[in-house]
Amino acid sequence: MIEDKNQQRTALSDLGEFGLIDHLTKHFQITQKSTVKGIGDDAAVLDFKSKQIVVTTDLLVEHVHFDLSYMPLKHLGYKAIMVNLSDVYAMNATATQVTIAIAVSNRFPLEAIEELYTGFEAAAHMYGVDIVGGDTTSSTTGLIISVTAIGEVDKKDVVYRSGAKPNDLLVVTGDLGAAYMGFQVLQREKEVFKVNPNNQPDLDPYTYIVERQLKPEARKDIVKLLKDLQVKPTSMIDISDGLSSEIIHLCKQSDVGAELYENKIPLDPQVISTCEEFNLDSTTIALNGGEDYELLMTISQEDFPKIKGNPNLTVIGYMTEKEKGMHLVTRGETLVPLIAKGWNALKDQ
Ligand code: ADP
Ligand code: MG
Predict the structure, then answer these.
(1) How many CB atoms neighbour CB 107 within 10 A?
(2) Could you say which residues of the chain have pLDDT below 50?
(3) Nearest-CA residue for atom 15 of ligand 1
């Protein structure tokens, strides 16, 4: 499968903790005005003037959240940043800085950690955020990565999960289910590889879904798009666990119900064909698959003309009074209650 072809192995012990931090971070650039002091002191110093600050952290643990047998370290670094930036954008904020903490065992040579940092840096560069600090320690078991992202937002622009009102439109960005199906394909190839290591997988028919699993992109563009369209969502959340559980979050925190239309859920053709191949129901995958990192929001009906026809935004339902509950309206027009099945639950089935 995807193997580290880099034969050079420099033991981490050759550098020591401070040598390693210096080696990995000495060339980092500062681009954000709000970064007063980045790496190198006891703490970073940031100045946001009159803005509100959003802060979010995610922890990624080897064997729980990722599997290095098919996840190249570069992609893992990139994804670790994306997962966090996605939470910042879900507040309708601009991401400005990240800190990165890693716990590594001696089984990783310096070259592997460099790969990981190539991913961190690529993501930070692409999304215009500064890496302003972190922590480095050893681990006796697997690799652990914790990223904290910081963002800024004008007080009037912050969007919470709690603002949805009955009759608001339920809107989603991009398409759903691809990351989960990419995961299914990679898992299958891993099993094949175990049996026959010479078998090179043909991932060509699955490029989009595999990329969505290995290299997700957080929707920075949507925060800008909404600003350009002059639409402020009434509530918003990022889709990390699957559409169903995120709708439930919005409903619970906003004290409303929702109707989601099965025939409106955006699916890529590759998701549909791969679901057929795996004998899985594509609606179930979109509802429970997770790791899509799209944004789910509610917007007021009067903003509909502003988003109508926009290829990035799909209306998939609407919010109701709380008493009506939370339902999927199937293609056959039956109402099925929405239930929260995180993608981890699904994985264990
Ligand atoms: P302290 O002992 O005060 O925790 P460290 O020696 O751990 O300081 O860190 C020195 C500097 O390097 C700090 O600015 C810290 O934020 C930064 N740093 C440490 N580890 C990392 C890392 N893995 N990635 C980025 N910056 C790091
Ligand atoms: Mg430290």
Answers:
(1) 11
(2) 1-2, 343-349
(3) 133
